Amino acid sequence: MNSKSYATKISIIVALGGFALGHWILAISGAIPFLREDFQLSALMVGWVTSSLVVGCMAGFLTAGFLSDRFGRKKVLLATALLLSVGGICCAIAPSFIFLILGRVIGGIAIGWGLVIAPVYISEIAPAEKRGSMGMINQLAIMIGISAAYFLNWLVLDLVDVHQWRWMLGLVTVPSVLYFIFLFVVPESPRWFALKGEVDQASTILSNIGGEQYAAEQICSIQESTEKTQQSTSMLQLFKGKLFTILLIGIAIGSLQQLIGINAILYYAPDLFEKIGGSRSAAFVQACIIGIINIVFALVAMRLIDRIGRKSLLVIGIVGIIICHLVVAFSFMGAKYSINDESIAKLKTDVSAELMGKIEPLKDRLYSSKKVYLTDLASHLTENEFKDNKLNILKSTVKLNSTVILVAILSFVGMYAMSLGPVTWVLLSELYPTQFRAKAISIAGFFNGLSSFFIPLLFPWELENIGEAATFFIFASIALVGFFFILYKIPETKGKSLEEIEAALITKS
Prior knowledge:
Blueprint: H1 3-39, H2 43-71, H3 73-93, H4 97-125, H5 131-159, H6 164-170, H7 173-182, H8 190-195, H9 199-210, H10 212-228, H11 241-259, H12 262-275, H13 280-304, H14 310-333, E1 336-338, H15 341-347, H16 353-359, E2 366-367, H17 370-379, H18 383-397, E3 398-399, H19 402-417, H20 420-431, H21 434-465, H22 468-489, H23 498-507
Antiparallel strand pairs: 1-2, 1-3
């Protein structure tokens, strides 16, 4: 059995977890409008529903390295699948807001484990010349899971009349259970076996991947690498010398991946598209397009990552992201708000005649400031009337180039899906020595999760309090800083074995 067939087969099975993760993460996007209505959630509470997942993720990130070094990569992946199933069931049957948050946290722990250990496992089993593209299989599976979440949410919206959000969140258990079953045919990581002194078992797996000579070379390389780093696996070693420098690079790229705003878009896509003038059904269809774009551009990245390299993909992607954010920001800056005959015709289907009479004094006034417009609107309505009808009034009375905004948002998703989205995890799985890899990615993953927590938590509040334009200008500024960081600090790892990367970054003086 050759390296391509055996290693690829194993990587595909492990990557099935990526589908479960992607579906789990984005199922909430369609549920948000219904959760807001059923539980009467404020903007900050909506942020908590989405970000509670990340609280669990951070716990998963912090423990993934220790657990996988102690018990093995495979056992942690099995636990991942199990917790994903349990968390999905909890969310589906949630009788209260608190119970829902609990289910999201349980699922988040599993997602933290999966995001760290799956790339580690694949990097440790893949031949050097295929490691980038095989690592991308996991990221592609995540993108497909995201696409499936959007599509299934749209299907539920169309087919189910009650408890739509329970179906949206409950369906995540199906791929999670299947993942648990398939994992039983996957071997343990050969590098983990080698580090534990179980050389015969490591050699057997490596022989299946590339033959006996390949296995002997890899075992020798792993042992030499371990000797050079003095066989210490203490977490404290990561905070010394060159290891600490590489750790900081990992933390920075992991944080950047989230700080540019991707989860704000992915989580709130249907909500955001509805706000720029679409119907709820059309907003769900547009969100499905995001899923398709994710898959297409992830395939582009898979094709290019071992050809042009990790760094080149990151540079191309971050430049595109900056441009997209600026286009969205300037488009929102040009938005105008007016209650006129056209907007009144739209509003009559969504609001009562009594309310229409209350906002009649604002007719034909043109506002260039959303804040001023909402202040005037609120002064003519009761607090509850304003809260319950604000979204419908805004989407019916706003004038902006929604097509440009939609294209820019979709383009941003594409740029992310071929660069920072998948390449970050591939790069993190390559930068560190075998005995430190899981621990280091756990730390970088924790900061990735911390960034991911605050972005979706604050996004609804930002849109409501500082406006869409300012929010996207902030994302663009962060991406610009990230451009210079990638250009000057990220090393290229294309075509090198894990031990060669270690020699170049750490063991050479």
